[in-house]
Amino acid sequence: MNQTDIIRIAREIGIEIYANDTHLIAHTNDLERFAQLVAQAEREACAKIAETAEPYMTADLIRARRSEEHTSELQSRV
Fold first, then answer.
1. What is the mean pLDDT of residues 22-47?
2. In terms of Cα–Cα distance, which of 11, 24, 4, 6 is closest to 73?
3. Per-residue DSSP letter, 27
4. Distance CA 43, CA 49 (A)
5. Are 13 and 34 in contact (CB under 8 A)?
6. Contact indicator for 62, 52 with CB cutoff of 8 Å
7. 40 pLDDT band (50/70/90 cuts)?
8. Is the Cβ–Cβ distance between 9 and 39 less than 8 Å?
9. 3 state SS for the chain
10. HSE-CB for 34 with a 13 A CA cutoff
11. pTM above the 0.85 mark?
12. Position with higher pLDDT, 76 vs 42
């Protein structure tokens, strides 16, 4: 999940984001729902890895997801 995905989920549930995506206004209920949706998306991404990976590689591939996403996000900004 990258910054674009996070902002999309936040906007879908009504969290208001201002000033070039650096400030937000949200109620506690909105933040709880946001956390649930982010966790659900992460579980699904991990499940997809688990379905296709060799069993002994699954944990390493899941851990590598974040560093790959971070690297790709940084490269897209250049």
1. 87
2. 4
3. -
4. 10
5. yes
6. no
7. very high
8. no
9. CCHHHHHHHHHHCCCEEECCCCEEECCHHHHHHHHHHHHHHHHHHHHHHHHHCCHHHHHHHHHHHHHHHHHHHHHHHC
10. 20
11. no
12. 42
